[in-house]
Amino acid sequence: MKTAPPPETLTLERLPTPFGPILVAADERGRLCAVEFWNDEVEMRALLGRHHAGKAAAYGPVAPAIRTAFERYFAGDRAALKAVPWTCGGTPFQKAVWQALTTIPVGQTWTYGALAAAIGKPKAVRAVGLANGANPIPIVVPCHRVIGADGSLIGFGGGLERKRWLLRHEGARFRDGDAVREARSARRHLERAA
Fold first, then answer.
1. Do 132 and 48 reside in the same domain of the chain?
2. Distance (Å, rounded) from C-alpha 194 to C-alpha 188?
3. 161 closest CA partner among 18, 43, 35
4. What is the tens place of the pLDDT at every residue in 26-40?
5. Catalytic positions, please?
6. Is 60:99 a contact under the CB 8 Å cutoff?
7. CA 148 centroid distance within chain
8. CB 61 within 8 A of CB 68
9. With contact defined as beta carbons under 8 Å apart, do 119 and 103 qualify?
10. CA distance 44 to 46
11. Cβ(21)–Cβ(15) under 8 Å?
């Protein structure tokens, strides 16, 4: 009787970033499977359960190419993550959205409407937003490059501060509501002082 091979074990590793550690998961072939911004093992295991059901996960070093790509990206090589191989589960629609996200050039942003049009479903803006929010591999599959129709920052699983940091790091233009509020507040303060 032939025995089945043991199930694949995914590797978990914490990587440093300028905004705190992230938890990443990779498979035995060196493909990135998930990124968890909050360094939360429980959340990571839930994410892996949705996209890589039945696979075990244990701490250890991920493929050096993944670690090096993140290090280079955060050190200023904005294109370093483009070479990271990745894999994940998801519906065909979600996978189409995630693949389209990888075509957004570094330093640019798209609206949800533009992303919907890019996959040939211009009326599916809400569904595209949901798929974007379900992306298990943020940063590498750059869901942070999607902004509101008015150019403002909206929605990001890693939080708007991280989204703002990533977009600034990449040199992207966007309407920064916090910066606008701060400028108005400073202008009012100067007017009162005068």
1. no
2. 10
3. 18
4. 999 999 999 999 889
5. 143
6. no
7. 16
8. no
9. no
10. 5
11. yes
Q: Could you give the number of structural domains in the chain?
A: 2
Quick one: 83 and 94 in the same domain?
no
Q: How many other C-beta atoms can be found within 10 angstroms of the C-beta atom of residue 59?
A: 10
Q: Are residues 24 and 51 in the same domain?
A: yes
How far is it, in rounded angstroms, from Cα 111 to Cα 129? Answer: 10
pLDDT digits (tens, 9 = 90+) for 82-127: 999 999 999 999 999 999 999 999 999 999 999 999 999 999 999 9
Report the length, in residues, of the chain.
194
Extract the tokens encoding 19.
């905004």
HEC string of the chain equals CCCCCCCCEEEEEEECCCCCCEEEEECCCCCEEEEECCCCHHHHHHHHHHHCCCCEEEECCCCHHHHHHHHHHHCCCCCHHHHCCECCCCCHHHHHHHHHHCCCCCCCCEEHHHHHHHCCCCCCHHHHHHHHHCCCCCCCCCHHHEECCCCECCCCCCCHHHHHHHHHHCCCCCECHHHHHHHHHHHHHHHHHC
Which amino acid is located at 149 in the chain? A
Report the amino acid identity of residue 92.
P
